[in-house]
């Protein structure tokens, strides 16, 4: 119990209980009396030790209170006086009962003072870890050198001198040996661990298995004769806007899978044929194949694009008389034509009488039927302006005159 107050007289006793007013339970004597009190200044309590040296785990912990002539000392453990411990210093060693609170009271003949409290605790350290070894390797654990798998414990000294229990899970992994039969295509390179070869034969190869230990592999490598391959021919020519259906001229019957690629490594087909291929510039196509043994064959074909069909024909007269012949004025192009951004027709005074923009299917365009504002345009000469873009991106403009006859 701690009671703090300013003493204004030399009190002999404290009474703790109900107030001084009449108490209905007075016959039960509900009061507590504390006597033998030492009244002291608050600075006489919790006085620091002069020094604290050593370590309980190293059996050399010493608590020392400032010494002065005429002082008497009594050390306490958990509030109980330690018999015979009446020196300014207390020496402590490790034991099962040493943990607890220690302090000392000091009497100088007139006044009593009490030291601060020092709590002794012996820390409990433990840790666990795992180690994996390959057979034939060893691991040093405390005083022992281990080679067998198992669970082990050892005591080590921590940085503060206390014991630290370390638990080890040791795993021993084994080397492996295996025999491998494999094949290599004629002319190819085979790699296994540190072996790289182009020749068939028997090899002993040392590598690392899946658990990180040595693996001895006896490799029996057989060679597969090269297939007769693929022949696409040297080149083929197509007109701009047309489509190609490509087939190998010859190929080895053992080939079972095919892949066609363009010059940008885009996959075009996964069969032995490439149908509907279209390109706007001369380029190469590639055919890669594998036979049943996984051996490759490949060939390259040059595709040339003939752009001589990039032309436009525009008539200079038309007769919109609904006789089914030359009733509409329009341009005539080939499959090389991509889009028509603009097709405009003006009368001789510069008035716009017909216009169509962004024609995306230019070959299906019907043209001008010779009407203006819902009525038949007058017979005479008109001026046209035409913008075209071919499939390869080339743009051309055409202008001229056309005569409308009725």
Quick overview:
This protein has 406 residues and is mainly beta.
Task: Report on the architecture of this protein.
This protein has 406 residues and is mainly beta. It has strands at 13-16, 32-35, 45-47, 51-53, 61-64, 72-77, 80-81, 89-92, 100-107, 112-115, 118-120, 125-134, 139-141, 144-146, 150-157, 163-173, 176-185, 190-192, 195-197, 201-208, 214-224, 230-231, 235-239, 244-246, 250-251, 255-262, 267-269, 274-277, 283-291, 296-306, 317-318, 337-346, 352-359, 371-372, 375-376, 380-390, 395-404. A hairpin with a 7-residue loop joins β4 and β5.
Quantity of strands, as a count: 37
Mean pLDDT: 91
Instruction: Tell me, briefly, the overall form.
Output: elongated
Helix % is under 10%
Strand content: over 45%
Number of helices: 0
Q: Strand pairing plus helix content: what structural class?
A: mainly beta
Report low-confidence residues grouped into runs of 5 or more: none
Largest sheet, in brief, is: 6 strands, mixed
Q: Measured on Cα atoms, how large is the radius of gyration?
A: 53 Å
Distance between the amino and carboxyl termini = 128 Å
Key descriptive features of the protein:
six-stranded mixed beta sheet; elongated; mainly beta; 0% helix; 406 residues; single chain; five-stranded mixed beta sheet
Helices and strands in order:
Layout: E1 13-16, E2 32-35, E3 45-47, E4 51-53, E5 61-64, E6 72-77, E7 80-81, E8 89-92, E9 100-107, E10 112-115, E11 118-120, E12 125-134, E13 139-141, E14 144-146, E15 150-157, E16 163-173, E17 176-185, E18 190-192, E19 195-197, E20 201-208, E21 214-224, E22 230-231, E23 235-239, E24 244-246, E25 250-251, E26 255-262, E27 267-269, E28 274-277, E29 283-291, E30 296-306, E31 317-318, E32 337-346, E33 352-359, E34 371-372, E35 375-376, E36 380-390, E37 395-404
Parallel strand pairs: 3-10, 12-16, 17-21, 23-30, 31-37
Antiparallel strand pairs: 1-2, 4-5, 5-8, 6-7, 6-9, 9-10, 9-11, 13-14, 15-16, 18-19, 20-21, 22-25, 24-28, 26-27, 26-29, 29-30, 32-33, 32-36, 34-35, 36-37
């Amino acid at each position: 119990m701690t009671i703090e107050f300013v003493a204004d007289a030399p009190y002999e006793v404290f009474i703790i209980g109900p107030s001084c007013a009449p108490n209905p339970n007075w016959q039960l004597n509900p009061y507590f009396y504390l006597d033998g009190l030492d009244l002291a200044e608050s600075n006489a309590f919790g006085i620091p030790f002069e020094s604290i040296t050593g370590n309980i785990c190293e059996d050399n912990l010493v608590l020392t209170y400032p010494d002065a002539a005429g002082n008497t000392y009594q050390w306490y453990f958990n509030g109980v006086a330690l018999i015979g411990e009446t020196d300014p210093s207390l020496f402590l060693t490790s034991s099962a009962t040493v943990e607890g609170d220690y302090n000392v009271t000091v009497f100088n003949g007139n006044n009593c003072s009490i030291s601060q409290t020092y709590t002794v605790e012996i820390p409990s350290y433990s840790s666990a870890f795992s180690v994996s070894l390959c057979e034939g390797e060893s691991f040093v654990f405390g005083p022992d050198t281990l080679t067998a798998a198992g669970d082990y414990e050892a005591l080590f000294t921590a940085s503060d001198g206390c014991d630290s229990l370390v638990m080890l899970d040791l795993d021993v992994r084994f080397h492996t040996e295996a025999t491998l039969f494999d094949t290599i295509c004629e002319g190819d390179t085979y790699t296994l661990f540190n072996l790289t070869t182009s020749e068939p034969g028997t090899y002993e190869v040392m590598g690392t298995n899946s658990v990180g230990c040595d693996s001895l592999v006896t490799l029996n490598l057989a060679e597969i004769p090269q297939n007769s391959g693929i022949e696409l021919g040297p080149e083929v020519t197509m007109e701009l806007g047309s489509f190609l259906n490509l087939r190998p001229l010859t190929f080895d019957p053992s080939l079972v899978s095919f892949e066609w690629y363009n010059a940008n490594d885009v996959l075009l087909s996964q069969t032995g044929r490439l149908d509907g291929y279209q390109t706007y510039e001369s380029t190469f196509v590639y055919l890669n194949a594998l036979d049943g043994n996984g051996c490759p064959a490949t060939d390259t074909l040059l595709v040339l694009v003939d752009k001589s069909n990039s032309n436009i024909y525009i008539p200079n007269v038309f007769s919109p008389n609904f006789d089914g012949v030359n009733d509409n004025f329009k341009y005539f192009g080939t499959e090389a034509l991509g889009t028509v951004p603009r097709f405009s027709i003006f009368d001789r005074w510069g008035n716009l009488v017909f216009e169509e923009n962004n024609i995306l299917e230019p070959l299906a365009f019907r043209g001008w039927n010779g009407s203006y504002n819902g009525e038949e345009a007058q017979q005479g000469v008109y001026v046209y302006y035409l913008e075209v873009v071919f499939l390869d991106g080339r743009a051309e403009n055409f202008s001229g005159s056309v005569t409308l006859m009725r």
